[in-house]
Each structure stands twice: as structure tokens, then as C-alpha cells.
Amino acid sequence: MKHSSILLLFAALIAVPWALSAQDGRNQTVVVTNKYDFDSSSREKTRIEMALPDSLTVFEKNFSYSVFDKPYAGAYDFHPYNLNLKPVSSPVGNRKFWMNAGIGYSLYPEFDLVYEPFRGPRASFGIYARHRSFAGDYRKTEVKDGLFIQQRGAEGERQYWGGWNYDMDNEGGLNFCYDWDRTALSFNVGYQGLQQRDWLSARSFDKAAADLKLYSKRQSSKVFNYAFYMSYQFGRDYVNSSLGKAEQYEHDMSFGFSFVANMKKKGHFALDAGAEVALYSNAMNHTAYVVEFLPQYVWENGGWFVKAGLRIDIPSTANNDVEENKGKSQWAYPEVKLSYEFRNIPLNIYLNVTGGERLRSYSSLVDDYRHFSIFSRHSNPSGSAGGSLNFSHPLLKNEIERVNAEFGLRGSIRSVFSYNLSVSYAEKASLALESINFANLPLRTGETAVNVPYYSIAYANAGQLNARAEAGYADDWGSVDLKLLYTDLYLRQEAPESYILPAALSGNLTLKFNIMRRLFFGVGCEFATPRKVHCGTSPETDFRLPAYGDPYLSAEYRFDKMVSLWLKASRFTGQTIYSTPLYSERGPRVIAGVSLSF
């Protein structure tokens, strides 16, 4: 497919929403994202999930900011920083300005800003910014007695990768919303930057994105509802190491529509269609896309909800000499959801059978695995000291979920206790897994090469079993929250040369207390069992990333509705905790700050 044809199609779809209009008002503030999901395996498989306009026609989303929030929530599966331009509802409520700023040891500055200069009966305009970073040393690691542990010197002292190491996220953008009587429009534009430096390389990943949604309000039409969306994202990754420089450009475009034909007997037919296109230049130079269609029927009656459909995903690539974004596609996937809501007790039982193909763009890999880069594309299996790098595998492969069956129940007791229990099994192809490889590489230009580990990803066909338990109790005195996740991954034949399996059991327990709604305390612990590591190079070996339990504390004092001071601390037990394998930050994390809202 020629690039000019793609761009012309994208421009034509941009023109469609502006040609549609109607009238009514709704306030909307779209701002800072709640970054930290409990489990990244629940991510959307594609960006084309639009049927049932609930997510499109209802702007209000639950967002409760608290300094007690742990900056990650899925042990060994968390991403302490995230690159998702998905702003959600403002934590400031009816206020126009909210700021949160803090800094601590060892240099963990954080900053959030939300400002809504204009909010009218029909239109609103908001600005948001966010910063998270770490600057300091990473722990050196070694394999000993089958464990991946902190490396120590001859005198028993701990060893660190010295120098100026850092990991920084910067994010900012604006949102505009307008409501007519029957139609609503939302437009977002933003920038995100990821800057990193470690013992192997320095990199800067910059991303700018814009998206537009136009949709009819669900209650406005008795005949049909519709929604259009489109997004454009430009990303540039630049890596500089002792082995040279690498640069990657990406243009990522998504567009689609959803039409819902309402029926008289509490049901409706829906058709979703869309596409995602990624164009690459420099280190990679190809085009990949996935076109998707999802016809389905939805029926609701009493406590019953039934959705039955068939998802059609059609992938393709062009100008591709190294098998990027290729694989064995299934094309047709089930889309069945069944649930029953009991009337007399707050209990919902649900069964979902789904599937689909996800276009694995370069930026999506950086989103999910923040230390992955163009440098990780290479390996040096020959072990030579010359630093000659060879391709180890295709960098990008579309992730295919052949089928995913989930059964669960959720509910509450006396409005103070809530729970969600589920078990699921999925068959996946080209599932991305973290990996560790070793190679003889010079750490600095001109230095002698040494055998060092480096972080990468690998692909595997696997069956995945998940069991999840979430429970919470909330009353006037405070709350208790427990999250547990059990994961078992069954690798099929032809497993990758090197890979890291997820923790079998991970979780998070948090207790929060408030005194007269002015003084707040929090205590909790995140934990995970060991992770199995298989490394197939220099030499082939099996070992484990160690288990850990990371307690954390927080406190907040609210002077009034506008000003509060807060403090939070974690990683003070001295354990070697890998938010990303190989990357364990030195020292405890203690941060103090102030929040303003008016």
C-alpha cells in the first residue's frame, strides 16, 4: 500500500466528523491519567472496540486521586511510568485548578497539573501536564545459586552502575469538548517524552499524538446511534551507545466508526469497523496495518445482557524484508459476552469469550516495556569483542489472541464491601515476553568489550491461565483493599531462546485511615513470587528473579479544601526489586510534596 493512499484515506475520514452537527451541553474535564493498572494483560487487544457506545457516549469516568496511591499495582507486571495518551476525568471536581508537586530521596521528582481555563454549558477546554523521573544508580546484578541478585565486591560491598543514570517521563496536552443537542465532539492533543540513560546507552523517545471523537448521544435517537473516531501519532526514538547510534521514526494512524441500529424488543444490531496503520523509516522501513470488522447483536432484558458477534481482523505488511509484523493470523475471532444481574442482591455473574489481533507497533512495545529500544533489537551471539551487532529476531510481531474465555462474578455487601473474582484462559500467538541476553559489548566508546547483560523482548506461542481476586472494604474510618493475581503460562513448542515468565502469584494489600477527614495515613505491601528466567546465550542457563515484599507508607495533612501536605515512602527494606529486569533503582524512595486545588 502506498503511503500517499493511506494519508489520503486518513484525511478523508478527518473531514467526515466536521461535516456533521447538532446541539446540547455537558461539562467535561479531561486531564491527567491514572497510570497504574493492576494487570496489563487486560489491555485492549486493538484500538477498535467501539460497539455499545457506553465508553463513547458517557464521558464521566471514576477518578479518585490520593497520595496513598501506590505508583504501581501489578507485581513484576507494573510499569511505574507509562506512555498512554488517555486522559480521564479531572480530580478537581468543580474546581478549575489542581496541582501536585513533590520531590525526595533519591531524586524522585513528580509533578501533576490540571487547569481548565474555560468551562461553559456547551464547551470546555482543559490543559494537563505530568512529570515522573528517577535519577541515580542502578544495582549491578549477578547469577548466584540460581538467583539473579545484587552483585557484591571482594569485601562484600554492594556494586552499582555508576555515572549519571536516569529515567524520565514528561507529558502535557490539552483537551477540547463541545456538545450539541444530539451529538458530542472531543478533541485531544498531547506530547510525551521518555528520556533514559543506563550503563549501555542513552535514549530519547518523543511522541506527539492527536485524536478526535464524534458521536451521537445514546438517548438522542430511537432509530440508530453512531460514533466516529480517528487518531494520529508520531514517534521518534533515538539511541546513542558505544556501538553507534540508532534512530527510528513511526507514524501511527487509527480511524473507524460504529453504527448501532436499535430494535423495539430491547436489542440492537451494531457494526464496528476500523483500521490501524503504522509506517516506519530509518532502522525499520516498512508499513503494517490491521483492518477490523465486528458485526454483532446485543440484547438486554431484565437482568440479562447478551452480546454475540464475530470479529474479523485482516493484517498485512508492505516493503518488508525481515518479516516485521508478520505471522500466522487467524482472521476470525469470537466476540461473545453473557451476564446476569440479580435484582434482589448486588451480584453480577458474567462469561466472556473473545479474541483478536493486535497490531504491535514500536511505540506500543515501548509503552508496555519501557526499557525496550532499538538497541534491544540486536544481539551478539558469537560473543566477539568487536561489537558487531546482528539481528536476533524480527522486532515487531502482531499479538494474536486466538480465544480468551473468562468467567467471573462481582458484587457488594451492605454497600461497604465489594469484590470481583474471575478465572480466564487464553491461547495466544506471538505473545511478547521480557528477556535477558548476554553479549560482549564495550560499555563506553573505545573501551574493551566485557560480557554484560542487556534487556530485550522475545515472542512465544502460549496458553495463559489467570485467576484474579479483588476485594475492598470502605467505611467512615478508611478502607482496606486487596488484589491478588495468579498467572500460569504454558509455552508451546519452539519456545524463544531467552525469556522471563511472569510471577505465579502477585498482589497488593493497602490499608487507609482518615482522622476527622483532615489527617490521612496509609500502609500497604506489594509482593510477588519468583520469576523463572531462561537465558539461551553465553552460556545457556535457568535462574530466577527473586521474590519480594515491598511495604510502603503514606501520610497526608489537609489544611483545607485547597491545600494539603503529603509524604510517602517505599523500598526501605533494602531488597533488590526489579520494576524491569536488570533495572533495580538504588536506595529507598521517600517523597514529600504539596497539593493545591482551587
Mean pLDDT value: 80
Low-confidence stretches: 1-92, 379-391
Structural class: mainly beta
Main sheet attributes: strand count, strand direction, barrel closure? 22 strands, antiparallel, barrel
Total strands: the figure is 31
The number of helices is 3
C-alpha geometry: globular
Strand content: over 45%
Percent helix range? under 10%
* Cα end-to-end separation: 52 Å
- CA radius of gyration is 25 Å
Which tags fit this structure?
mainly beta; single chain; 598 residues
Could you give the topology of this structure?
Elements (H helix, E strand, L loop, with lengths): L2 H16 L35 H4 L39 E9 L4 E10 L3 E13 L2 E2 L1 E4 L2 E4 L9 E2 L4 E14 L3 E15 L3 E16 L7 E18 L2 E19 L4 E16 L4 E15 L2 E15 L13 E10 L5 E12 L3 H7 L9 E2 L10 E2 L7 E15 L3 E25 L8 E26 L2 E14 L7 E2 L4 E11 L3 E10 L2 E5 L5 E5 L2 E11 L4 E8 L18 E9 L1
Antiparallel strand pairs: 1-2, 1-31, 2-3, 3-8, 4-7, 5-6, 8-9, 9-10, 10-11, 11-12, 12-13, 13-14, 14-15, 15-16, 16-17, 17-20, 18-19, 20-21, 21-22, 22-23, 23-25, 24-27, 25-26, 26-29, 27-28, 29-30, 30-31
